Amino acid sequence: MIKVYGVPGWGSTISELMLTLADIPYQFVDVSGFDHEGTSRELLKTLNPLCQIPTLALENDEIMTETAAIALMVLDRRPDLAPPVGRAERQQFQRLLVWLVANVYPTFTFADYPERWAPDAPEQLKKNVIEYRKSLYIWLNSQLTAEPYAFGEQLTLVDCYLCTMRTWGPGMNGFRIMPRISVRLLMLYVSYRNYKKY
Q1: What's the pLDDT tens digit per position in 61-101?
Q2: pLDDT tens-place string over residues 31-71
Q3: 182: closest CA among 124, 140, 152, 122?
């Protein structure tokens, strides 16, 4: 069985949702506190020297990291969790999958730990990054034209990112100025709660 090393509500939630949606069994290992020195960090470091979550220990004892890579691994087993090959939605799925990881995801690292990147001006960095993230969400809102999910009636692995984002900045109230995202987050939240209690 796959082991997911993560923290409830953090980035590992994305991989948990993907595995759940794909009906792939897994065991969750809570490594809360991994971002500071201590036993959780030491445990995680033995599996992933970068000390990042999610870190997955696969059935064959290989280690898998990076949510986009995990999404591709899940698609190998469940290709129905992305739009079909040959359709325009497939290219948009691929684009948004990488875009979310390359653009939105890093803003949380910088805003959550601004003192690491700008020790002389952490609050200014945090403010700037949050404003930049808002501009990214506004762009994403303009790309989401299907309903009720990112690509229409079909839930995809990109929706796992959107569902998790509902608990991160700017929070549900902040998403209200971006109605397409806001509606999807609510739909996804209801869908996943009905699918499996989280």
Answers
A1: 999 999 999 999 999 999 999 999 999 999 999 999 999 99
A2: 999 999 999 999 999 999 999 999 999 999 999 999 999 99
A3: 140
Distance CA 112, CA 110 (A): 6
- The first and second tokens of residue 104, run together, are 């939105």
Please indicate, yes or no, whether residues 75 and 106 belong to a single structural domain of this protein. Answer: no
For residue 107, what are the domain limits? 83-195
Q: Answer yes or no: do 33 and 92 share one domain.
A: no
**Residues 7 and 48 both lie in one domain:** yes
Per DSSP, the residues of 87-154 read SHHHHHHHHHHHHIIIIIHHHHHHHHSHHHH-TT-HHHHHHHHHHHHHHHHHHHHHH--SSSBTTBSS
Q: Are residues 45 and 87 in the same domain?
A: no
